[in-house]
Amino acid sequence: xxxxxxxxxxxxxxxxxxQAGTAIVTAQIHKNxxxxxxxxxxxxxAFSETDGKIGELKELMVSKAQGPLSLWCxxxxxxxxxxxxxxxxxxxxxxxxEPIQLSESDYYVYKRLRAHxxxxxxxxxxxxxxxxxxxxxxxxxxxxxxxxxTGAPGRGKSVLATWIIDRCKDExxxxxxxxxxxxxxxxxxxxxxxxxxxxxxxxxxxxxxxKYLSSIMQNLSLTGASCEFLWHILFxxxxxxxxxxxxxxxxxGYDELHEKDRTLLASLFxxxxxxKTSFRILLVGRPDRSVEEAFKQxxxxxxxxxxxxxxxxxxxxxxxxxxxxxxxxxFTNTEREEIVSLFAAxxxxxxxxxxxxxxxxxxxxxxxxxxxxxxxxxxxxxxxxMYLLIIDRIRALCESDDDRALVEALxxxxxxxxxxLSVFELEAALGVECQDINIHEIITDFGGSLIEIxxxxxxxxxxxxxxxxxxxxxxxxxxxxHVSKDKAHRYLSRVCLNYLQSKSGRLPELxxxxxxxxxxxxxxxxxxxxxxxxxxxxxxxxxxxxQSSCDDISDxxxxxxxxxxxxxxxxxxxxxxAKQSVYPSEWLLSIAKAGVDAQRWFITQGLQMxxxx
Length: 613
Description:
Layout (H helix, E strand, L loop, with lengths): L2 H25 L5 H14 L6 H13 L3 H11 L6 H12 L6 H8 L16 H11 L7 E5 L6 H16 L3 E4 L10 H15 L1 H12 L9 H13 L7 E6 L6 H11 L9 E7 L3 H9 L6 E3 L2 H19 L5 H15 L3 H11 L5 H10 L6 H15 L3 H16 L4 E2 H9 L7 H9 L3 E6 L2 E6 L2 H8 L10 H16 L25 H14 L7 H16 L2 H15 L8 H18 L8
Parallel strand pairs: 1-4, 1-5, 2-3, 3-4
Antiparallel strand pairs: 6-8, 7-8
């Protein structure tokens, strides 16, 4: 064999060995650095350090093990001189940016709600709103690179947003979008919004993708980065040099972001008017004084498009006419037309009112009863009055104190959960203190058409039908159905901790004594309880009148920290992190967060944690 052939063979063998070593070491990444060093040392013993490659691999491994796993996985193929496929590059960006997964599903949920021949006024140049939206769309005026689209609750803003997104796609082949969701803390975060939009941008724009990949190669970490830093690195630097096309971005539910995030992003978004590339942002949401003030302080004039009731009245007729004609086919044409006209007038352009009111009349048989029911409903502009009517119905269905306790627990979970619960999670959560429940009956009877079950990937999620429902129950207007955030979060934290300690009887007797496979099918609330018990604790506070309740939960926490449950909780988080987490350490980081949350809670309450006693 010639020297050149031997060198080629050695190089090939080395690459195979390095790839095998990479697989071994990566498999150990969740354990500890010393384990990985040991694995590389074994490779070093088994094979000579040709060209110092093994030593370089060891050095690379040790440095990357201290940071995100994504950087390690990204660097090794480049170290081996391999060419990455587009799918691999996207995977690297996903690990680096950590966007929200399945963010497009929200778009499809709202898109399916749009009825035929609705929303068409939005790009009709004959009305003021249509003229302004066309200015934003067509890139005719730099002044319209940042625009607000506002409307009262229930006006169909999210459905309209999907129509605007589709129009952008039709004319420009692409559109960035993000839906802020009130009942999912991740989707109310400015941090996650910027990361998700940047990831979507990198998928459609080669120059942006290459720039981001270059940042990864330079070991630029985004872990713990501020929103200001993310905006500068991911957007300002990209658009300061100019791109090949106009980029449209629709952000729906802007008012559902945390207030501090809304004002911060508003001040950052003002910079789009200085970009060389046309980056056009449409903020869709309710009127918001804090956002207006942020633009005022930045001395930026932002055009506002208001969804007028006159625009949506016609759309509401389009929605209800087929329903009325189908359900009341035996009524006369005049009766059906009168029902539609009265219905549209009472709705006052509020789709949410129409949705609830339709459910109320669909079970009626006689025209007189239909007209009477519609007449007795409050106007669409007063949704709280509609909610109070539904509460009266729920109250009438409560036959005992146990029923009232169940209603209270249900609404605490629905209103204050960190993220939407699946049907199985909610059933397990309510089952901790209420046995033999039928979750579907509970939702139907005690949700009163204000709670719905929707698709979320492979699961069914339970949520309120609208953000305003959550706001109503958190307000004193809900009367005796008012949900106190402090009490609710304290209750949810207690339920999670009791669940983790098997006090509910829902987990196997020997769950904490034997190493058995942990499956969410046998313990549906386990994942939520592991990751979020401390989040609820951090959101709770004890008043003087609730000191006994404070003492109760402090005892539960101390018992948890001293029992076999705590190491098992850490083990469960580690197991979930390895098997289910999209991003490395997502679950393990919740352990560190729990320590901070618990310590802060004890300090706030003036109690001693007593962990070392």
